[in-house]
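Incident log, support desk, overnight shift.

02:14 A customer reports that sequence design results differ from what the structure should imply. Their input is reproduced verbatim below. On-call engineer (initials T.W.) acknowledged and began investigating.
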């Protein structure tokens, strides 16, 4: 199973980026073989719709889970409709957030955790 975590860095010790749509990068962790890859978020500088576009990238990566700090309403709807579970955390690092998920310490977000910019 693939899990996407928002980050500003390139490894498990990197900070977890609390932003979703404007996160610098996505760390894609594959729980089946304990590998990971880092993908630049090419949509972070979009004038509008960065969250929606980032959600489409996450879906395209084959993720079943997203772990981030906050997720806005439009991105939340895209992810939810694609069957991606969303978990929000204030973990300091990607590794810490992944450990929290594996230990069952994160609660699934049932609604957006950030206001939309045009709300």
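02:41 Re-run completed on a clean worker. Output:
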């Amino acid at each position: 199973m693939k899990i996407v975590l928002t980050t500003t860095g390139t490894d498990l010790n990197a900070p977890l980026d609390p932003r979703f749509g404007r996160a610098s990068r996505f760390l894609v962790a594959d729980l089946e073989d304990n590998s990971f890859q880092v993908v630049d978020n090419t949509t972070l500088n979009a004038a509008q719709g960065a969250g929606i576009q980032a959600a489409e990238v996450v879906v395209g990566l084959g993720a079943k889970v997203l772990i981030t700090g906050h997720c806005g309403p439009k991105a939340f709807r895209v992810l939810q409709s694609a069957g991606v579970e969303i978990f929000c955390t204030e973990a300091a690092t990607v590794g810490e957030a992944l450990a929290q998920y594996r230990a069952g310490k994160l609660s699934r977000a049932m609604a957006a955790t950030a206001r939309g910019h045009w709300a």
